[in-house]
Amino acid sequence: MLLGRLVGLPVFATFQGGDLQLTALERRLRPVAVRAAAGLVIGPALEAERVQRRYGVPSRKVGSIPNPLDVSAWTPGAREQARAELGLSSGARVVAWHGRVEIHRKGLDVLVDAWRGLAALRPHDNLRLLLVGTGTDASALRRLVEPVRSVTWIDEYLLDRGRIRRLLSAADVYVFPSRVEGLPVAPLEAMALGLPIVAADLPGTRQILGGVEAAGGVIVPQEDPDALAAELARLLADETLRAKLGRRARERVETSFSPEAVGHRLRDFFVRNGMRVPPLYSTAPV
After folding, report:
1. What is the pLDDT of residues 89-140, one digit of tens each?
2. Domain-embedded: residue 277
3. In the chain, helix, strand, coil percent, each to 5?
4. Which residues make Cβ contacts (< 8 Å) with residue 47, sequence separation at least 6?
5. How confident is the model over 27-47, as pLDDT tens digits?
6. Is residue 284 situated within a structural domain?
7. Are both 135 and 225 inside the same structural domain?
8. What DSSP line would sit under 67-92, residue for residue?
9. Are residue 266 and residue 252 in the same domain, yes or no?
């Protein structure tokens, strides 16, 4: 901040969440630095509101702007090829989840309970739950899913985003049952693949979906396996609705979370708070 003052340039900062301050010096300097910044870029809207209240920062200096998702890297893959790789039939109804295996935080116990309920609701359907990822609770999750029919679990740390994209392309619906999240990336990746999502009610999921089906998904109460099972059953039974929500999901990511969309929001925020930026250049042919 001091260097910016010395050279006459506005200094912007990001705030990554949390209020843990490890040293006495940090406790003294953080409020000063936050208030001295020309602007703060914070992804989760709820966290942006908290920082504004906690540090008394004017609302114009706080921008709730998410990290962008490279939508060009998240395009739907060949569905039948993905299913063949997983040994899933073309007629199966597939629900997918991916992420770190942390049972409580990610709501995986709720998901397993909901899946049991869904199997009871539709006992004659060819249902498959696709789980992608591993983590500290992998052993506990294995005990949970062992007695449950029709679960396919890729129990690996996957860093290859291309492979994750191919695996998720096998799905009809994406499920996100988390209890605790900021502004989650996983549902955005699924939405970019054209998958409708069923998500637990969190500030971050409401921010992604705007709370309405028009954005490509459905929000259900937290820790409610019956509601989760009911919405999954509704989408799995209606191919037309799934296709409509899937198109809306992709459009939502393109218009609100792509690098172009986020870049325009950042530019507007910087200009409002004193930064001089060059004009945007047209890419249209001359």
Report:
1. 999 999 999 999 999 999 999 999 999 999 988 888 999 999 999 999 999 9
2. no
3. 50, 15, 40
4. 15, 17, 182
5. 788 888 889 999 999 999 999
6. no
7. yes
8. PP--GGG-----HHHHHHHHT--TT-
9. no
